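Renewal narrative, Specific Aim 1. Our central claim is that a sequence can be written position by position from structural information alone. The example that follows is taken directly from our test logs and has not been curated for this report. It begins with the structure tokens describing the chain, in the order in which they were read.
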């Protein structure tokens, strides 16, 4: 219970945000003033995918998640921020998630478990750090809103742990039941390009649709991220409710084969 309360406190107290509900450029931004935005936010993504663990003489593919926040989340921390001057902007995003053991399925095994059919009982745990930095320039600004073109770099550091017991079946019957406990780490660096902005849905501009999309590659074969939702502008800032999706697709020899984060996010934005 204390761990769960700590997670909730860390999430709700976390950090600095301006991902797609960022500082909206206006005509007055054309001067030399810097504008900044900060916002406590809460993002509760479902995390799932497949990790490939290297074993003596072979490997094993294990499903990861979907993790349950109430049962599996041990710790979370999130922080984002942005600075804007005229048409130019700079942003950063950082997330740390730690999930405890979760029942998993081992899709294929060899090497340590032998070449025969296996019936493993497995659990995986996951710890990940995500850092994004980038910059953008406003390429379209109309009465309905604006669009920024963005470019940046995304880092993902992952530690996965597999704990499994396998019963190997041979022609002579049930064989040995080896116990496996292995942890592996992977660091991924990916560049990305994309767009972000907002589109007003009311005449006064108070209600609007924030949006974000990027595509990238590097250590990953492919990675992409998308976000949209509904926002309301106030004198002191904005309140937005969005849905965010982030995915990584690795190559055959990497720990991360697929990894997906998806879920709602509540942001309370303060401008200064």
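The sequence written for that structure reads:
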């Amino acid at each position: 219970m204390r761990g769960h309360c700590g997670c909730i406190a860390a999430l709700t107290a976390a950090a600095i945000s301006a991902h797609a509900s960022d500082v909206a450029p206006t005509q007055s931004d054309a001067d030399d003033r810097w504008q900044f935005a900060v916002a406590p936010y809460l993002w509760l993504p479902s995390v799932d995918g497949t990790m490939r663990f290297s074993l003596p003489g072979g490997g094993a593919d294990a499903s990861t998640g979907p993790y349950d926040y109430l049962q599996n989340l041990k710790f979370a921390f999130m922080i984002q921020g942005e600075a804007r001057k005229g048409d130019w902007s700079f942003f950063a995003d950082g997330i740390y998630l730690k999930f405890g053991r979760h029942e998993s399925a081992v899709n294929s095994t060899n090497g340590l478990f032998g070449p025969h059919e296996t019936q493993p009982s497995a659990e995986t745990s996951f710890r990940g750090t995500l850092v994004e930095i980038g910059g953008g320039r406003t390429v379209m600004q109309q009465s309905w809103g604006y669009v920024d073109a963005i470019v940046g770099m995304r880092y993902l550091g992952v530690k996965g742990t597999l704990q499994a017991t396998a019963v190997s079946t041979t022609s002579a019957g049930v064989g040995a039941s080896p116990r496996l406990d292995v942890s592996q780490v992977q660091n991924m660096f990916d560049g990305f390009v994309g767009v972000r902005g907002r589109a007003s849905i009311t005449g006064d501009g108070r209600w609007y649709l924030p949006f974000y999309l990027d595509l990238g590659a590097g250590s990953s074969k492919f990675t992409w991220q998308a976000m949209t939702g509904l926002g309301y502008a106030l004198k002191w800032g904005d309140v937005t409710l969005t849905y965010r999706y982030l995915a990584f697709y690795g190559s055959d020899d990497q720990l991360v084969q697929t990894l997906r984060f998806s879920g709602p996010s509540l942001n309370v934005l303060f401008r200064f």
